[in-house]
């Protein structure tokens, strides 16, 4: 049992972090991000009805495309999408830290999730979380020697946020 916990504690920690952020999202009376938050949700929500929204530059095409299935469940669906991306980003950061043999890589997951602004942005429909995920996924692929895959993934960065240019 002890070796099971040691081998899988990063998954357990990811699950605990997911539960904490989901509870924060559903108990919180408001959200961070103002009208940008709602606008990105509405782009994703109505993209199937108005397909040109998938290509709208302000709506961020990659975000709209990936979040639109979740947005069909309402604003909470968009929040869940971003929370899942945030936890996936933290997990990738853990894997990067482990690959680089950084001491206590599990702490990286906690630091990513509880960075103050990142923690506030995870339960929103803002595009910064997707931008961070794409960037960290690129670094992960690059460190593992998958250079072509890293180049392909990073090429989508401008479609997550225009700062990707």
Percentage of residues in helical conformation: over 70%
What is the number of strand segments? 0
Secondary structure class reads mainly alpha
Mean residue pLDDT: 90
H-E order = HHHHHHHHH
Low-confidence residue ranges: none
What is the number of helical segments per DSSP (H or I, 4+ residues)? 9
Integer-rounded radius of gyration: 16 Å
Notes on the structure:
This protein is mainly α. Helices cover 70% and strands 0% of the residues. It has 9 helices and no strands. The protein has helices spanning 2-27, 34-45, 61-71, 75-99, 106-113, 116-121, 128-143, 147-154, 157-160. The longest helix has 26 residues, at 2-27.
Gist?
Helix 1 (about 1-25) runs antiparallel to helix 4 (about 75-100) and helix 3 (about 60-70) packs across helix 4.
